[in-house]
Amino acid sequence: MLREKPRSGCAINAALEVLGDPWTLIVLRDVIFGGRRHFRDLQLRNEEGIASNILAGRLRKLVETGLLTRDDATRGQKAAYTLTEAGIQTLPVMAALGAWGVQHRPTTPELAVRARILAEGSPELVDDLMDELRETHLGIARENPKSPSVSERMRQAYEAVRSRESQAG
Amino acid sequence: MLREKPRSGCAINAALEVLGDPWTLIVLRDVIFGGRRHFRDLQLRNEEGIASNILAGRLRKLVETGLLTRDDATRGQKAAYTLTEAGIQTLPVMAALGAWGVQHRPTTPELAVRARILAEGSPELVDDLMDELRETHLGIARENPKSPSVSERMRQAYEAVRSRESQAG
DNA sequence: GAAAGGTGCTTGCGAAATGCAATCGGACGA
DNA sequence: TCGTCCGATTGCATTTCGCAAGCACCTTTC
């Protein structure tokens, strides 16, 4: 799944060797924005319909490359995946991808609203969300917790678009 | 190569369906940072050793999705690829990926220097480089051309690291 | 004006990854 | 102890990757 030797020493290539496939960032997105930390949750609630073997492979790769950790639970137990600092720091990549996607590809309003919030509020908003993730996943308390939190603002914006859509449609 | 229907309406997914594979962003990187606009140039000078069929497929896909245009030259003639506005706007994604790669993956100093310059000078520097690309590829003159240009600064930084390296042995 | 070399690709083929459905062994609750 | 949930694994058909070779067309050279 992951090459032993990098194709080159370029930083962009180095990032792509870990993140550059059609599924890795999707899984990471669900952990970061969806707050999902269990296998079943990541599979069944995934928008794109990821297959279980693909998900299993990606989770293994993400743990290998140090973007996630997995608490050691034996087979059959509820295992939780946790973001590492390296995983949290993929957030600017997500924000940039989302901003590009909203502008240049077709998207649905409900799902695009998060990307728009991140793109318009960046970069302070991205930093705030990273701090939130550090608190949730790494147990590092925030210095200046803001209210409402970024994730709460995103959830509210998502609901607002949904209700507006359902009235219109 | 490209799906007809998106897997979902999510902006991040939409971006990944175009950019989320191991080669597309590598090709785009060589066009943006390497200034390469011809097939042979993109193939033979590529750091990662891209195969010609892979390159041909990616160039076709990039034209289809509107990130590049190709001047209509028949087979055997020198065809040039040109960035579109959508292609130019992948630069923030590149910068974010490069910044992550430098911090979290092994890289060589010569090739990482570009990513470091972009990460430290962002976001004004990224905007300047996008304006340079608009001038080179779209023929849109810059309002306030700075000297030295961003690409020139990058080239100089690359050379500086190289000579430092060769002295050190 | 024929030969040599450069242009952007295409083809063939073995290896690997993807995508889908079914299944599995352990833990847990009743 | 039975049924259900858990995180996966297995089998298999299809697609993509990655490498080497070749191809059609153009330009340059002598």
TrEMBL record, chains A, B:
The residues the entry assigns to the signal sequence are none
Q: Which UniProt keywords apply?
A: DNA-binding, Transcription, Transcription regulation
The family database entries (Pfam families) matched by this protein are listed as:
HxlR
Task: Report the Gene3D superfamilies cross-referenced here.
Answer: Winged helix-like DNA-binding domain superfamily/Winged helix DNA-binding domain
Please name the PROSITE patterns in this protein's record: HTH_HXLR
Membrane-traversing stretches:
none
> InterPro entries under this entry?
HTH_HxlR (IPR002577), WH-like_DNA-bd_sf (IPR036388), WH_DNA-bd_sf (IPR036390)
Asked if the keyword Transcription regulation belongs to this entry, the reply reads yes
Q: Does the keyword rRNA processing apply?
A: no
Residue ranges of the HTH hxlR-type domain?
10-109
- Gene Ontology terms for molecular function: DNA binding
PANTHER family linked? TRANSCRIPTIONAL REGULATOR, MARR FAMILY, TRANSCRIPTIONAL REGULATORY PROTEIN
| Name this protein carries in UniProt | DNA-binding transcriptional regulator, HxlR family
The organism encoding this protein is Streptomyces qinglanensis
